[in-house]
Design a protein that fits this description.
The complex is a heterodimer of chains A (287) and B (235). Chain A is mainly alpha-helical. Chain A is built from twelve helices and two strands, in the order αααααββααααααα. Chain A has a single domain, classed as Orthogonal Bundle (ABC transporter involved in vitamin B12 uptake, BtuC). Helices cover 74% and strands 3% of the residues of chain A. Chain B has one domain: P-loop containing nucleotide triphosphate hydrolases (Rossmann fold), CATH 3.40.50. In chain B, strand 4 and strand 5 form a beta hairpin. The interface between A and B is medium-sized, with 20 and 25 residues.
């Protein structure tokens, strides 16, 4: 029974990693941009929610609703006026610029909030649990996993049921031909990054409610996000959820064997999947 | 006044100059054919008109407005749609989605919509849910033409729509041209197939090495004139 519980906790933890990774997957899928500042943007989102909670006395679940459009605007402007300028045949400029952005964000957060670790205020809901037969599940992990599934369902609906989704896919296929359809690729990319930062804000909410955060933890979140995206297959949203689950289960199983193996087990699972399926579990056909 | 016009249009790819002062005009309800051998500059001319390649403002004008520096998406929104060379369908979109994406930047009511496109090319209706790139070359060309028509353009630029297709398929595709014209669009058709171009065009421009070397109505041009303009006097 302990093992079943361990695996279920791992699956639920995978939901958090999938939330970390979905925005990264979205941006990579549409514009082949690897955003090395993604983890730091998650941390920035957590601080933004914290500020709203502190200044306005809101619940984190209400504060996140205010933070989401703000983060959308940040993402839109960041892409439109900075990252779009780095896109092209050379993959190096976006890597260098987002690496620089990552360092700038970390230092700005350090300057603004100090190195002290913070946490979003919890309430009864965040510590509640439900019994499912002999297994006890935390409400927060369930909410996190449910949010991850909802985010991925919503993104799939957006991609395959809306005009904007068609424009995303067309621009991803061929930006020049897309412009002949009246699409402005620069605006499409900016909208995609805006949406990615909305997802980042949701991830930041659960990050801040489940654990402490400080300005320096962004790069580790980026690694988990990367691993989930690569395991799932670059650009595949459901693959990203599965990638998150694989890392989450590997971590909880590793921790059950030996607590020191938790993080290592996630990375080993990532390497094992790469050895068997170098392009991930669900690679895009036209990549 | 011409509906669409280029004036002293030049184009460069880095140090290589592809067009040298090209002047062409397209009048309302007219079909103009641009013929020329490989490398004559026909596709560069189309890309310059469509806004993929930028120029000086006055080098291209549409409906009396300079559009030489206007981005491709805005030119499309004004009513100039392009069927690009090589069809360039979007692999991740189905046939129907490829058609629908053609209305993204310009939603005007007019003759062309999904129903009329499926009437023009019935096979596309049967394959509407297939990936666009899973179709035969001819069917893909039909999707590319349909996609451009979906915006009900005032000017349709067709770049080498017969390229790589079997003669019987080319005949089928060219059957659509009079219907497109009837529905109100003016066309510029770039072709290497001289006979096909002559059959549909009201006027013809022949290009060689980035310059217009001959122009006139199909009836006014002799076979010998076209041969010289197409291949050069030495041939």
């Amino acid at each position: 029974m302990i093992w079943i519980d361990t695996v279920i906790q791992g699956v639920l933890l995978g939901g958090l990693y999938a939330l970390f990774a979905s925005g990264l997957s979205l941006v990579f899928g549409i514009m082949r941009l690897v955003n090395l500042a993604h983890g730091d943007l998650i941390v920035m989102g957590a601080y933004l929610i914290l500020v709203l909670v502190t200044l306005l006395g809101l619940s984190p679940f209400v504060a996140v609703l205010i933070a989401m459009p703000m983060m959308f605007a940040v993402g839109w402007l960041l892409q439109k006026f900075l990252l779009n300028r780095t896109l092209g045949d050379d993959i190096l400029p976006p890597l260098l610029v987002t690496f620089g952005l990552s360092i700038a964000l970390q230092n700005a957060l350090l300057e603004g909030f100090s190195a002290d670790s913070q946490r979003l205020p919890t309430n009864a809901l965040t510590t509640a649990s439900v019994d499912v037969g002999p297994i006890t599940l935390g409400v927060m992990p369930l909410l996190t996993f449910g949010s991850a599934v909802l985010v991925i369902v919503a993104l799939n609906q957006l991609f395959y049921r809306t005009e904007l989704g068609r424009a995303f896919r067309a621009t991803s296929d061929d930006a020049t031909t897309a412009s002949l359809m009246g699409i402005k690729p620069g605006n499409i990319f900016a909208t995609a990054t805006g949406i990615a930062l909305v997802i980042v804000t949701i991830a930041a909410l659960y990050l801040g409610l489940r654990a402490n955060f400080d300005p320096n933890i962004g790069p580790a979140r980026l690694i988990y996000a990367f691993e989930a995206v690569i395991i799932g297959g670059l650009g595949s949203l459901w693959g990203t959820l599965l990638g998150g689950i694989i890392i989450g289960v590997a971590q909880t199983v590793g921790a059950a064997i030996n607590p020191e193996w938790q993080i290592l087990a996630g990375h080993v699972a990532f390497l094992a999947v790469l050895l068997i399926r170098p392009r991930g579990l669900f690679p895009r056909v036209n990549d | 006044m011409a509906l669409l016009q280029t004036t002293n249009l030049t184009a460069n790819y880095g140090d290589f100059q592809a067009l040298f002062g090209v002047d062409i005009a397209l009048n309302e309800a007219e079909t103009v054919a641009i013929i020329g051998a490989n490398g004559a500059g026909k596709t560069t001319l189309m890309r310059s008109i469509a806004g993929v390649l930028r120029n000086t403002p006055e080098a291209v004008s549409f409906d009396g407005r300079p559009i030489g520096t206007t981005p491709a998406d805005e030119i499309m929104a004004q009513g100039v749609a392009m069927v690009p060379e090589g069809r360039k369908l979007f692999p991740s979109l189905s046939v129907e989605e490829n058609l629908l994406i053609g209305t993204y930047g310009r939603k005007t009511s007019g003759h062309w919509n999904l129903t009329t496109i499926y009437e023009l090319f019935p096979i596309l209706g049967e394959r509407r849910n297939n990936p666009g790139t899973a179709l035969s070359g001819g069917q893909q060309q039909m999707v590319a033409i349909g996609r451009a028509l979906m915006s009900n353009p005032r000017v349709l630029l067709c770049d080498e729509i017969s390229l790589g297709l079997a003669p019987v398929v080319i005949k089928d595709i060219y059957k659509a041209v009079p219907k497109i014209k009837e529905a109100g669009a003016s066309l510029i058709v770039v072709e290497q197939d001289i006979a096909q171009a002559m059959a549909v065009a009201d006027r013809v421009y022949c290009m060689m090495e980035g310059r217009v070397t001959l122009s006139g109505t199909p009836d006014s041009l002799s076979r010998d004139d076209i041969h010289k303009a197409y291949f050069g006097a030495g041939h």
